[in-house]
């Protein structure tokens, strides 16, 4: 079969002919129906190397890209599903035995870290191919969505859902919440916030198209990112600031904005991999503020995100492309020419 693989550090992927994988014990063979293109893939192809990111030094090349996948469970251990059942695949592959896993926090597994190279598309073969092998416990069945429609839920949808849940208890109807970066992940956070809380939603981005989409899907206020953004957020929140800021960029400038607009006892949720830093110092943030970082989401949260989508309460914005166009799609993604999420279909 044809697979789009990372074959050399620091270079774009390329198609390779590889055999259809065979599932081992506790594994399922999935025929891919859709694989999402993610900015993390761009980092893998153009920025991350064992020299720049020592954590991936043990990863073995080549491997197939694509960590946002859905399809049909075909063979192997199908965890009680019928052959051919449509599924989404949890991107967090965990040990299942540690305290975090037993608590249901599979995305924070104590034994398998995201940098261990032991997940599909992140060190092991992912979904930019006709088939992939996955742990059986990562299968989440679909009822009312086609796999290509559900693929973005496994990373963009799951990561943003988990981030929203982290601050949800704070988001009463009398407060504001800020979403910085309303692209592939952030636009879904706007949808979750619209459905799950009564807080006023403020979207911030540099791209007018992204802000237009955020307005259409439920943001109450959309602001272009500039030197007036902080004062506009303060003005919109009676000079109190936002009770939560979800930063889907993670650069120095966006983290600085988060500190400028967070209110006392609020929470800053860092999601984006922009490489920014936030000083840890008493008095660096308003009193009572907590700062958390998030990684993906748990398999049980993926079940919840799928349920919201199947009920029609959220609708990921996406563009479909044939897998043959994957190189061009990544160029579009890098140039910020993708609305929502790009899904590649074998």
Written account of the structure:
With 346 residues, this protein is of the alpha/beta class. The protein has helices at residues 39-46, 99-102, 147-150, 156-167, 186-196, 208-216, 229-236, 252-261, 299-310, 326-334; strands at residues 2-6, 14-17, 27-37, 63-64, 69-76, 85-89, 119-120, 123-124, 131-135, 139-141, 176-180, 200-205, 221-224, 242-247, 262-270, 290-293, 318-322, 341-345. The strands form 4 sheets. Strands 3, 5, 6, 9, 10, 17 and 18 form a 7-stranded mixed β-sheet that branches. α4 packs across α5. The radius of gyration is 20 Å and the shape is globular. The termini are close together. The model has no long low-confidence stretch (mean pLDDT 95).
Helix and strand topology:
Elements: E1 2-6, E2 14-17, E3 27-37, H1 39-46, E4 63-64, E5 69-76, E6 85-89, H2 99-102, E7 119-120, E8 123-124, E9 131-135, E10 139-141, H3 147-150, H4 156-167, E11 176-180, H5 186-196, E12 200-205, H6 208-216, E13 221-224, H7 229-236, E14 242-247, H8 252-261, E15 262-270, E16 290-293, H9 299-310, E17 318-322, H10 326-334, E18 341-345
Parallel strand pairs: 7-8, 11-12, 11-14, 12-13, 14-15, 15-16, 17-18
Antiparallel strand pairs: 1-2, 1-4, 3-5, 3-9, 3-18, 5-6, 6-10
Helix pairs in contact: 4-5
On the 0-100 scale, what is the average pLDDT?
Answer: 95
Q: Beta-strand percentage? A: 25-35%
Percent range for helical residues?
25-40%
Task: Please report the distance between the alpha carbons of the first and last residues.
Answer: 10 Å
- Please state the overall shape, judged from the principal axes of the Cα atoms: globular
Gyration radius, in Å: 20 Å
Give the biggest beta sheet. Answer: 7 strands, mixed
Please state the second-level CATH architecture of the largest domain.
Alpha-Beta Complex
> Could you give the count of β-strands?
18
The oligomeric status of these chains comes to: single chain
Look at the structure and give the CATH class of the largest domain.
Answer: Alpha Beta
CATH superfamily of the largest domain: Medium-chain alcohol dehydrogenases, catalytic domain
Indicate the CATH topology of the largest domain. Answer: Quinone Oxidoreductase, Chain A, domain 1
Structural class: alpha/beta
Runs in which pLDDT lies below 50 for 5 or more consecutive residues are: none
